[in-house]
Amino acid sequence: MRLTRNAELFTLLAFCHAVYAALYTDSDHLPATIFDFVIVGGGTAGCVVASRLMENPDVSVLVVEAGISNNGILGIQIPFLASQNLGNASFLWNFVTAPQPGLDNRTVSYARGRILGGSSSVNYLVYTRGAGQEYDKWAEITGDQGWSWDNLSKYYLKSSRLVPPADHHNTTGQVEPSAHGFGPVEVSVSGFPTEIDGRVVNTSKIPGSEFPFNADLNFGDYLGVSYLQATVGRGQRSSAATAYLDPVLSRKNLHVLINNTVTRLISSGSSYGKPSFKAAEFAPDASGAGLPLSAGLVLTLQPAKRGYIGTPQILMLSGVGDREVLTAAGIKPVVDLPDVGQHLRDQPRVENYWTVASNMTSDTISRNPDIFNADHTLWKKNHSGQFAASTANTTGFFRIPNDDPIWNNVSDPELDPNIAHFELIFDDGFSPTVDPLPPTGNYLSINTVLVSPTSVGSVRLASSDPFASPLINPGFLTTEFDNFALLAATKAARRFVEARFWEGFIIERFGSMGSAESDEEILAAIRQAVVTIYHAACTARMLPANASWGVVDLQLRAKGVSGLRVVDASVMPVIPAEHPVAAVYVVAERAADLIKGSWS
Ligand SMILES: *[C@@H]1O[C@H](CO)[C@@H](O)[C@H](O)[C@H]1NC(C)=O
Ligand SMILES: *[C@@H]1O[C@H](CO)[C@@H](O)[C@H](O)[C@H]1NC(C)=O
Ligand SMILES: *[C@@H]1O[C@H](CO)[C@@H](O)[C@H](O)[C@H]1NC(C)=O
Ligand SMILES: *[C@@H]1O[C@H](CO)[C@@H](O)[C@H](O)[C@H]1NC(C)=O
Ligand SMILES: *[C@@H]1O[C@H](CO)[C@@H](O)[C@H](O)[C@H]1NC(C)=O
Ligand SMILES: *[C@@H]1O[C@H](CO)[C@@H](O)[C@H](O)[C@H]1NC(C)=O
Ligand SMILES: *[C@@H]1O[C@H](CO)[C@@H](O)[C@H](O)[C@H]1NC(C)=O
Ligand SMILES: *[C@@H]1O[C@H](CO)[C@@H](O)[C@H](O)[C@H]1NC(C)=O
Ligand SMILES: *[C@@H]1O[C@H](CO)[C@@H](O)[C@H](O)[C@H]1NC(C)=O
Ligand SMILES: *[C@@H]1O[C@H](CO)[C@@H](O)[C@H](O)[C@H]1NC(C)=O
Ligand SMILES: *[C@@H]1O[C@H](CO)[C@@H](O)[C@H](O)[C@H]1NC(C)=O
Q: Is Lyase one of the keywords UniProt gives this record (predicted)?
């Protein structure tokens, strides 16, 4: 018997090393069924917390990820190809929203990363930390100064660092090194200024411009036009998986099970007078039987993979949610938390197009297989060239001017003058959303994004089947402010390209957004053009422990439950008015510290 055991052990080790140090696809090969921490989802936050918890060699950590490994997938590594990921079912949760009344009942694609690293493995790479006042608002809402900008700064500094761009150009004036930290996620500006980068930046430097230049949007004051910072290092994508997980995969106290979906958490007894979750059930696919997996402590971390969607879904399937709704769905309620899945906020996005007098835009590359293949070959050679450039080089965050006519119709929901209403992202090519790349022509795209939406949505269970997609309703454009703010953003984009630097370059507005003239026409075109920029949050909001609402407390523990924490964008009390991935890293870093503090 002893020999057999040793032989088995040997086989197991050999298998692990042959495939990947501690990456498993078959749960039978896991060396144990009991772990100190089980992390549901190897997404953005899950990778961070796993890598921080396993710093203590006496702690064992298991990450269960529904999707595949990020290793060896070129489309994910190459920054230029980021926009193509959003069609690829092999590493996405291909969710679709419910019909949106604010969008003439259109449904909207709502993909999430289903892969190690979660959406940080498939996103458009944009890295923005936002305004200091936003985090101070978290501290004010929760009553916990631990969530303030000042106190969270150390987590920002330990999550990312500035690295040289792929072409090693001189970045003086494009980014401020002192705004950056020393963490594992690599952040850089794109290659040298191009025809449009110069026009964008020069427009922002016109004295008195309503779109002023900002030397680094990650200082805590992010309004204005900036060189876009992307999670790109050495010409390739830097994700939670490459930065946090890959370097520690060979450590013996970390185990990562991929291709397996957690279907529910199992409550067993109680602890400190609260129902206690100490086991998770998972299955390789819809046909597989649910296998129980024990844990000393179950820790639910949200998967940026399913993030604000997966968290409420798993909580509700586990009996944590609105008692009446769960009972109606045939799920035995364990804890009555009516806020689970509520208060979803997301940022609607619209593309505005112009035809341009240039043949150097990305359209030429996308259409011409010879150029595309040459760029691909160059990237494979030394991670340089066009394929190392991310999806945009410049961006800007703005407030709707005080004299804009929209203020005659709506009041301002964001009174803090440091927090943006909308973003403009500048692309030197046609950025396809509802319309595909036209067969001919060269284009400028200005993405208008409503970063401070007031519309509220939800995630609800469609069925008690854990493999069924939940009902996702972002409630896009269901408030007057949201409609008018996107209108104001489109008008701002049009004003932007009236600056003299665009003369001789811009030919004319293009597409149905472009041909809309009156406010009513623009609003009608917006309803047909809105997609998501995939920034939803707030479905498991953190609020003071004594509040009668909210899903998690200030330590991110699920309220009324023992042994369960939620870590991802769903816990944010308000939606960040920027791209949220930097804030997710910060939340996850602090969560790891809080967990370590209560464990020791
Ligand atoms: C989707 O990703 C897979 C890798 O998982 C790759 O083999 C395939 O070519 C991709 N498909 C498209 C259409 O990009
Ligand atoms: C959207 O659907 C609702 C409910 O079916 C219907 O009442 C409404 O007229 C539809 N709106 C549009 C613009 O089609
Ligand atoms: C926040 O920072 C202040 C000053 O740095 C410190 O005194 C306080 O203890 C911190 N609060 C928390 C909860 O970390
Ligand atoms: C980069 O450019 C700045 C300003 O033009 C200059 O002062 C600095 O010396 C340059 N750095 C290098 C390494 O060339
Ligand atoms: C960003 O700049 C690089 C040059 O460094 C250029 O190749 C690329 O097309 C630009 N990308 C966008 C989306 O503007
Ligand atoms: C932008 O301004 C710089 C500095 O004045 C100048 O060298 C460059 O040619 C300008 N670019 C455009 C597109 O106008
Ligand atoms: C893991 O999932 C991927 C994508 O669904 C599939 O191609 C692959 O065969 C699976 N691997 C195993 C070992 O089941
Ligand atoms: C762009 O136009 C110039 C001048 O007409 C031409 O020399 C060049 O080959 C064109 N480049 C591409 C990529 O088509
Ligand atoms: C990559 O290779 C190309 C072609 O040989 C060369 O021009 C370029 O300088 C190299 N880039 C880097 C960053 O090494
Ligand atoms: C704003 O309100 C005014 C006065 O009610 C109205 O005339 C105008 O049409 C509204 N604007 C839009 C774009 O609906
Ligand atoms: C919650 O506790 C805080 C102090 O910890 C107190 O200021 C607040 O009034 C309490 N709220 C409720 C609803 O009891």
A: no
The answer to whether residues 181 and 158 touch, using CB atoms and an 8 Å cutoff, is: yes
Known binding site: residues? 123-126, 262
Q: Residue ranges for the binding site for FAD?
A: 123-126, 262
- Share above pLDDT 90 across residues of the chain, in percent, rounded to a whole number: 71
Q: How far is the C-alpha of 508 from the C-alpha of 437, rounded, in Å?
A: 17
9-71+254-341+537-599: CATH number: 3.50.50.60
Contact between 277 and 562 (Cβ < 8 Å): yes
CB count within 10 Å of CB 252 equals: 12
Residue nearest to atom 12 of ligand 2 (CA): 104
CA-CA distance, 130 to 585, in Å (whole number)? Answer: 13
Q: Give 502 Cα–ligand 6 centroid separation in angstroms.
A: 11
Q: Where are the domains of the chain?
A: 9-71+254-341+537-599, 125-240+345-532
DSSP 511: H
Is 29 in the active site? no
To the nearest 10°, report the CA torsion of 563, 567, 569, 570: 0
* pTM, rounded to two decimals: 0.92
Question: Residue 255 catalytic?
Answer: no
Nearest to 513 by CA among 500, 497, 501, 529: 529
Select from 3.30.560.10, 3.90.1150.10, 3.90.25.10, 3.40.1650.10 the CATH code of 125-240+345-532: 3.30.560.10
Please give the pLDDT value at position 307: 55
Residue 493's nearest CA partner among 532, 439, 529, 535 is: 529
Collapsed DSSP state (helix, strand, coil) of residue 442: coil
Ligand 1 contact, 464 CB (< 6 A)? no
Q: Tell whether the model's pLDDT for residue 1 goes beyond 70.
A: no
Express each pLDDT in 542-589 by its tens digit.
Answer: 999 788 889 999 999 999 988 889 999 999 999 999 999 999 999 999
